[in-house]
User: What shape does this take?
Amino acid sequence: MFKRAIIVILSVLVAGVLFVSCGNKNALKTENEVVTLRFVIGGADLNYNKLVEEVCRNFESKNPNIKIRFEPVSGQAYGQKLLTMFASNTAPDVFSLEAQNLPSFIKRNAIVPLDSFIEKDKSLDVNMYYPAILEEFTWGGKIYSFTDSMSPSVVYYNKDLFDKAKIKYPSGNWTWNEFLEVAKKMTIKDERGIVKQFGAALYDNDVLYFVKAWGGSLWNKDKSKCVYDTPESRAGLQFLIDMILKYHVIPDLKDSSDQGSYEIFEGGRAGMFVGGRWYTVSFRKAKVNFGVCELPKGKIRISPISTHAWVISSQCKFPQQSYEFIKYFCSEEVVKYMMAQGDCVPPIKKLAEMEFLKKDPNFPNEDNTAYIKTMAYAYPFKEYLHPDISWSEVDQIVWAKNIDGVLLKKYDIATYTKMVQDQLNKLIGEKKTQK
Amino acid sequence: MKINKKVLNKIFIGYSFLGPPILGFFVFTLFPVVASFVLAFMEWDIITPAKFVGFDNFIKMINDQDFWYYVYNTFYFVLAIPIDLAAALFLAILVNQKIKAVGIFRTIYFFPVISSGVACALIWKWIYNGDYGILNAFLKYIGVHTPPNWLRDTTWAKPALIIFGLWKGVGYQMLIYLAALQGIPEELYESANIDGASPWQKFWHITLPMLSFANFYLIITGVMGTFQVFSEPYVMTGGGPMGSTTTVVYSIYLNAFQQFKMGYASAISWFLFFIVFTVTMIQWKYAGGKNYYY
Amino acid sequence: MHSKKIAGILKKTVMYTFMILLGLTMIAPFIWMLSTSLKEPANVFIFPPKWIPNPIVFENYAHAWQAAPFGRFFLNSIFISACLTFGSLLTGSMAGYAFARLEFPGRDKLFLTYLGTMMIPGQVTMIPVFILLKNIGWIDTYKALIIPGIFHAGGAFFFRQFFLAIPKELEEAATIDGCSHVGIYWRIILPLSKPALATLGTFTFLGAWNDFMWPLIVLNSPEKMTLPVGLAYFTGQYTTDWPLLMAGSMIILLPVILLYIFNQRFFVKGIVMSGMKG
Assistant: This one.
């Protein structure tokens, strides 16, 4: 009897907590009262947080009716915290979201589109942003965010190492084959044949970039199928794999026995580095004498961009004010401020093509032309994302589980691409039946 | 009448000693566990309301080939526990002696436990590096011509992680054994000496039985720990190569917080629970309830 | 006689050598942390690694400390860890005593339930706990970091095992003298359990001190955050500030080392019936 009582009590507790939404839905405040917005960002470091604080205070001084409560979340557990907040109805008003998570949140109506606010807003020119940026944030015809910072991928080269090897600095007007030749010359092996200095290091496991640059694609046009297994894809992947296994000019993409690839570049153990502008802060600290040029051309010339979104949650009670805040954060004024700090490229075309190109007196050796030229053929991460499948599931199949077989020479690329295609198509089928 | 009162009195004392702790236990520890059990029968993406799906999660789990591979990996790591405990006991005996500077040794052996996990992982990544790590340098020196590239080898990645885990955690178990060793009465050894017992006999017939309580604790928590920790090995191998170091818990984390499948993650957790609980029950029947008095 | 002496010295030498070598491997990461904390960023990952930094940058410690309100984080961490440790030792030893010494119906089943709760990974219980805490208004409070933690089953398990190993004779003597269970618990069992209290106390403190995930999830206000959360600010999304991160890690490590050394004094043998030896 005692036992039964316990079971009943526990069940009631569980039911109560899980299914009854004890939300704090107060009455909406009137326009004249002070509104506090909870603003959460994830994974940012101290320097960036200080900048954000400044921006928040500036916004408050321009908007006395709105207070911003800035709650940065450190480390790598942002996703967990964000989801926990949503589950408990304590989601923030405005928060940062990586582009890769946008479809997942949109699908579940966790974030609010900005279109209704943009329509009413006469002072905003949406087209001041680069088209690739707007594309990144547009899903189902609706736009969900702007941004204050972004970066395309470019090639960094260590001028000192190039001088030592007496090789001309790359101009950016090159193909991947030419890149390979330069990388071969920059690769130094010791007497045992072990690489002491790599030709290049890649910041990311972006195998999909190589697929696209050779004319292949992960999905078909309407994303109803995975079309990974094509001769073009395989050619692009083969090139990447050859760089690792055949020519040994870049480190094994998964060899975590070394540190992150940018650290290899900083330690002077790689001649070049493929990545985005946010690494320059670290390069400057490590006093690397670097130059920047565009990514080489595959079959087509493209460059991935990386950016984050500022979104309004569906649990937000003050969407209009939140929109004002986001608009301000992504405005010319703030973008100018952010870009001066050195770790991103402005998403606003006008600024990028004028202010950004002016040399920073503190870093006279840095030339930002490459970033702007690259934007002409930038494409958003959205290309890889499927509206119904979480990025984590795609990433597991394309990268985490299956590419090792190729890197460890257990099977060839054709086997890999077929595997990925089959597994992803199976996933698409499963999601369809779930709907 | 008398018997009833005695029983009631026992219940009263038992539960009032246990009272505050147990109330807190029910609310903060047991309740979430029960909630997770309920979730195992739901489909919940955390953001939208949960949906009841019966046994679907369990069926899906059983049919997932990768899942069984991760179960195999997890069990593989459990085999490390006897090795860990033997090593820890050995160290505990070493630092239980009245030798010079034993306090320093006790402190230093505990350092891996408190050192930054990131720093430890880095050092060992260098040790295990196939080309220039000192492990392979040493192996080549003693005549092993082609040692494996440890962390990038599907056969050797798990043993490599086991050694790393042993090194990192042994200080913790050593300390518990030390505390237990301190509790063995000196008299037992003295009377054994009078009877002319050898060191081995003393160890086997006095030390080991008196450690049975510590053993039970360490084995159970060891099994639980193996089934639950994933962050450090993950830093070293990323779950690879080819998923050979991915454990069930990593899969739980992925499903819960990156793939919006909290219900499925709960189902996996309860399957795990089932296994661990069975193992514990076996341990319990075999040694847990027995009291080794002298 | 002669050979016996040599054998003795040989044995000792081997033992000491082994212990020292082992000690060196165990302390290596700590040395690396120390070395990195004094390096310039450019020197962190040169190869082969240089153990002695050149130049030595002591300012890293000052920079790390000033980068975030670490003073505040330090106080928060001390408060939370100390309360959690004290609370855990209290509830754990009480529950452990009940399981080890008291007899009441359902005791073993209850104990197995305790064990059972330790077998569910935290990832799936995290959200239910959070929702519970939210509904009682404890989110973003210190209470949420302390109270749920002290009711974790591990402490009860640990003490039960430890108490079971204590010979019953001592208590039987006390019961004959008319001592109640509470008295036995307080006056006999606890004093005998110094090594256990020191051990579990150290681990609990260590766990609370280094806990990153739970404070991150439960706290929102930056001024309430704990040291590990503060430390994580040195790892950005793309890059890590290694020298500052290691300097911060060293600062965080210090109290733990001190606590551990302090607790060593409780590891003394001969607690039971040592009166016999006189």
User: Anything to note?
Assistant: Chain B has one domain: 40-288.
